[in-house]
Amino acid sequence: MRLMDRLFEYLNFNNLSAYEFEHTCGLSNGYLGKQFRGKGTVGSNVLEKMKYHYPDLDLQWLLTGEENAAYVSEELIRSFNNQIRQLERIVADKEAIIEFLQSNSF
Fold this sequence. Notes:
mainly alpha
């Protein structure tokens, strides 16, 4: 798997669009697509921007495909906690809707 494959995996996992990632990092529109098609290289200045704006992006994994187990575990826990909070909000919203519908029978 190439660096760009791993980067797109990161984007998909975090529900980020390439455009959003490019915009946040100050990259030109279409930069990631160009890199993905193999028409350029990712320089250290771009990696620094990525790390600055996305501190949870493990550059070791991005560059080599090897994960830092302690780091990944911490990030996975944070990600799971965020997903749990989102699901809790969804459940609360649905429960409120059900309660509303039950109290206002049509």
